Each structure stands twice: as structure tokens, then as C-alpha cells.
Amino acid sequence: MSTSTPTPARFLDYEKSLACIHCGLCLSSCPTYLETGDENDSPRGRIYLMRAVQDGRLALGETVVTHIDRCLGCRACEAVCPSGVQYGNLLEHTRDHVEKNFARGAFQNLLRRVAIEKVFPNRALMKMALLPARFTNWLGAGSLLPKFAREALALVPDDVSAGDLPERSLTCRGGDRRSGRVGFIRGCVMDVMFGPTNLNSVRLLNAAGYDVVTPPSQGCCGALHAHNGNLAQARIAAQANIVAFEKLDLDAIIINAAGCGSTLKEYGHLLAADPAWAERGKKFSAKVKDLTEFLVANWPDFHSALRTPRSALKVTYHDACHLAHAQRITQPPRVLVKTVAGKNFVELPESDLCCGSAGTYNLTEPEMAARLQHRKTENILRTKADLVVTSNPGCLLQIRAGLKKAGSPARVMHIADYLAEALGVS
Ligand code: SF4
Ligand code: SF4
Questions:
Q1: Domain's final residue, options 244, 268, 296
Q2: Nearest ligand (C-alpha, residue 42)
Q3: Is the CB of 24 under 6 A from ligand 1?
Q4: What is the rounded distance in angstroms from the CA atom of residue 406 to the CA atom of residue 244?
Q5: Which residue lies with its CA nearest to atom 7 of ligand 1?
Q6: Residue 411 — φ and ψ, nearest 5°?
Q7: Of all atoms in ligand 2, which is nearest to the CA of residue 88?
Q8: Is 274 a domain residue?
Q9: CA-to-CA distance for 224 and 192, rounded, in angstroms?
Q10: Exposed, middle or buried, 381 (CB in 10 Å: 0-12/13-18/19+)?
């Protein structure tokens, strides 16, 4: 690794970086600060580091990069900040600056530039990459691998299943009960590992009265690149998706993965400096809705479609960071889960504290990810829930692996699967 000489660099929007008034109200919401107690692992400390690098008071060295890398990008700090600090924006621009100016070791480069940026967003490559992992799991040979590989392998589920969604899926209500037409984003990880969940999401939308269009020309939303410090590639991904959807006459564009949803809702910001794309980005983002917020707003008689009798399973809900903090959506998924579970619903302590998945964080920062996974697992065990429902594939895999490690029989389900099963449409 190398260290550059401190020189002023313009990578942050200066106004945005000055908004922090150092009040410290965000500290108790920051998972990494809660774990380490180190101010440099807090939002306030990181903003200070970012500004010091920008002002040329601090070199972009290993220490600074360690604290920036250790940030989950969960944006819990942003949701509680009284000063309206746009922490996610500051972090993305800092990471972009880090990746352009800091020389990482060979392993981190391979992980970030190849695995995360090239393999994950590519359906065929990701399917191929999963084969040896699943084979090793099947052989039970994971224990022979080093710790890092074991942790990564534990995330790969046995029941990976890709999906081939039809380009058009018509509502089963038909006739005058058709409520409208929506687009569907199939995602990268969702498409390759959670095919049945995508299918259930479309079935739910159909049951709610909506025709669903899934344009085959859509691609990765750009979240993997944006969170990994490659804003240029994230912009290219955003433009491709705008082109894929903008000519369709849609009431909304639906996403069932929280991490993708927050990036899709921010295309307007991502493309703001490009006059050819800024307005198109804004229009696209205005149509993006998380599956749960859309269902709650547009399916008033959801409860009457439920199967009876209800399951007796005790159910809890984990808030995905990019749904709860980045999109501020906490009630719609709860409304839906509580409608199904009734008195069997139990709140999860620290439900909106990151589980350590944070996109690809559990691959780049496995140590902190494991600490947060353990914390989440302990909280779940305290509820004695039989089932954990969540709304993001990364959280689902991370929590499932944590419960397995703890020897717990509790199941983890994506909310689309949970609802589809309860309605009998899965
Ligand atoms: S980020 Fe917001 S909450 Fe945190 S110290 Fe700064 S102003 Fe206060
Ligand atoms: S994004 Fe999350 S981990 Fe990063 S500083 Fe904010 S609260 Fe802490």
C-alpha cells in the first residue's frame, strides 16, 4: 500500500461537508462506533477525516482509508442528523477519490475491481462463480479453507435459484379491476440467487391488480459501483437503465432489494452534473418504489386476500439499512408483516442496526461484518422468533449464516416470499 503527499483535493461538495456541526447525536446510531468506541469510526470523525484530506491537512494514507473502508455506508447517521448532513453523498465521493488515488494491495484490488465490479453485475459470470462455492459446500469441505473464505462460503445458500421472469406478466384480476402497469427491476444478486423471490414479487403485484413489465435490456442499478468508489461506472449503469425504462408507459418502477432501491432513487443526484441526463435521471427516480411501499399505498384490501388460518410462527422483522435509513421506509413492511402475523409479531431489538452485510462489506471487511452479524444474531435469539423477515438479499444471507453459526433453527425469508406464501400465490 502507498501513501500520497497531502495536497488539497476537490472531491467533496464543500457546502455539504461543512453542514456537520459536530453535535455527536449520530454516534449512538453508528454500528462501527458502537463496536469500537473510536471517534475515527464514527460519522463525525469520518467527516473530519474526509475534510482534512480534502483540505490537504492529512495524507490519503492507510489509517484514513481504514476508517473510511470500515464505514458500512448504512446511513443510520444521516437518518438521525439534525443538521441534515448528506453523509451518503460525502462517503460516495470520498470512496471515489480513494479508489482513484490510493494504491491497494493485490487481494483487495482483485476483490473490488474484478469480483465486485465485474462478476456480481454479470449474470453468467456470477452463476459460474457460484458453482465451485456450492460444490465445496456440498462436499462439506469448507472447513479446510482459510477463515476469510469460510466466512464468504457460509453466505452462499444451498438453494440458489436463478429466475427467468417473463417480459410481461398480466394481472390475474383482469377486466375493469386492472389498476395499472408497473416496471420491475430484477437486480443482480436477486436475479441469480433469488429467482423465486422475484417471481413472487411479480405475483404479488399482479394480485394487487398491476400488469408488470420486466424489460430484458435492464442491467445492474450501479449500487455495487457507487458504494465501491466507482461513480463513473455507476453513472453508465444508471444511463442504461433510464434508456431501458423511460419509453414504457409505467405508473411506477418496483424494486424488492433495499440496496438497489436507494441507488435507483438517487439517479437524479448521480447524474446531476450532466445536462443531457440530469432531468431524465430525476424522472426515472421519481417513479422508483420499494415493493412494500407500493403495496401498502396501492392495495388497500390486502388483508382480505389473506389465507386463513394464520400460521402460528413467531415472526420478527429486520430493517435493511438502505430501506430504513437511506429510503426512510420502516412502516410499510411492518404493516404488511403485522397484517399477516397478527399477535405473533415481535419487534426485534436494534432492528435497524446493520447486520454487517452492507452490500459487499462482508467480503471487504469480514472482521467487523462478523462482529455485527453476531450482535444481530444475539438480538434475534432474544426474541425467540421462528422466522425473521427482511427486504434485502444481502441481509437475508448474512442473517441466515449468523443463525446457522449459532445453531438456531430460525428461518429467514424475504418479505416477498413471506407475503406470497401467506396469500397462497407463491
Ligand atoms: S453528522 Fe450530523 S449528527 Fe453527526 S455530528 Fe455531524 S451534525 Fe451532528
Ligand atoms: S454510514 Fe453507518 S457506519 Fe458509516 S458513519 Fe454512518 S452510521 Fe456509521
A1: 296
A2: 2
A3: yes
A4: 43
A5: 20
A6: -95, 160
A7: 1
A8: yes
A9: 15
A10: middle
- 323 and 404, same domain (yes or no): yes
d(CA 234, ligand 2 centre) in Å? 21
Do 79 and 122 sit in the same domain of this protein?
A: no
* Residue 2 confidence (pLDDT): 47
In a domain? residue 8: no
pLDDT of 1 > 50? The answer is no
Specify the residue with its C-alpha closest to ligand 1, atom 6. 20
pLDDT tens profile 353-365: 999 999 889 889 9
Ligand nearest to the CA of 358: 2
Expressed in angstroms and rounded, the spacing between residue 99 Cα and the centre of ligand 1 is 25
CATH code: domain of residue 332:
3.40.50
Share of the chain above pLDDT 90, in %: 73
**Owning domain of residue 30:** 14-101
Number of domains in the chain: 4
The pLDDT of 277-285, averaged and rounded, is 97
Choose the residue to mutate in 15, 40, 81 for probing ligand 1, maximizing ligand atoms within 8 Å of C-beta: 81
> Considering the entire predicted model, what is its pTM?
0.91
* Residue 305 within a domain: yes
* DSSP E strand boundaries for 165-277: 168-169, 180-184, 210-213, 252-255
- Quick: pLDDT tens for 384-405: 999 999 999 999 999 999 999 9
Rounded to the nearest integer, the mean pLDDT of the chain is 91
Mark whether 346 and 405 lie in a shared domain: yes
The per-residue pLDDT for 138 is: 66
Pocket-testing residue among 81, 83, 87, 325, ligand 2, by greatest number of atoms within 8 A of Cβ:
87
